[in-house]
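This part of the workshop introduces the protein records we will be handling. To make this concrete, we reproduce a full record directly below.
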Amino acid sequence: MAFTPETWKTAFTERLSHWRQRMQQGGITSVYAFVSAMTLWPVAAALHGGDVGAAVALGGVLAGVGGNLIANRLQRWQDETDAARQLTTEVATEPALRAELDTVLEKLDAVAQAWEALPEAEQQWFAETLRTELTPLGNASRYTAPLTGSGAIAQGSGAVAAGQGGIAIGGSVHGNVSLSSGGERKS
């Protein structure tokens, strides 16, 4: 099967199972580097197998920001853990590489998917660790949803939010629900 953007997304999604355990087993401490490596490994594996469609898919995702920095690294990577180790050291000194990685992560919605794949008890760890890593690098704002004024932000699949004075109800609702403007239930 030829490597396409769709097969890339599918391969990445399949890698999400138990990703934190793989990260820990590999001795990787950078969430950003590991999620980046996990996202890009299907491309690297396809290229190692001689599928030039992987280069085309990567080029399509990175159109407008280059892609040479990532493309030059893919052939060197032995596996996902090796990629994460290399990226851990390289992202600290190469802002252009971070820009390319950020573009890939954004276009594949990789950070949100990695967060959603974690058990709820680990999601706070993920958010805090990612923020701690990215703040000194200067790209934390790409992974934060800014809220200005009153309102709410909802992210991820199935997220529900309500603005100021609003009411959000998630899940299945059966029967009539009637609420006053103060949020109190009316009989």
